[in-house]
Amino acid sequence: MEHIQTYLDAAVLRPEMTRDEVRQAIQESIQWKTRTVCVRPCDIALAREMTRDSETQVSCVLAFPHGTTTTTVKAFEAEEYCKLGTDEIDMVAPYGMIKSGEWDYVLNDISAVATVCKRHNVLLKVIFETCYLTAEEIAKTTELCIQAGADFVKTSTGFGKEGASFDAVRIMLDTAKGRIQVKPSGGIRTKETAEAYIAMGATRLGTNYSANEALIKGTPTSTGSGY
Q: Which residues are the active-site residues?
């Protein structure tokens, strides 16, 4: 197994974080050589500058954490964040529409963002918030993400009632059949849990930056808030 840090998108997303707290979190993640720092949109430029010449890239969230903005706004956001220099975007799918069975809406919503990302060579991950969805809804949305041209399906924002679950990740992997990558996120706070998801076939993990040391070295961590 590769070093765990190569799987980690270290989330720096709490809305109350000060600029200094964000800088410290990004710097710690750079030192741990996490795959990316996943930042608030207002912090993309800062993260881009701080990660320059490091092994850590920049990802950001879009329509976070509820996914309820319109498709036009989501596409505009994607264009803006790509221009600011993000390497990857984690968008929140309109999971209320998923639960409503509005599949054409969902497909168009994801496709609109995927089109922008592909034009800028930016990876797109789509967050389902699986804790609110049935197994059938998770499988159907995974298929739509493949159809839309997304690069990853992702379980959770870390701000829902639950984070990743092994059941949800298994549904995503079984549906994906290697056609799209899978990212568990939320509630991954131990090295053992991280390794279990990787062994299942996950290729990225969404975790809180405060858990970097615990995940990489196997030391205890506090639960924290979000992720």
A: 90, 154, 183
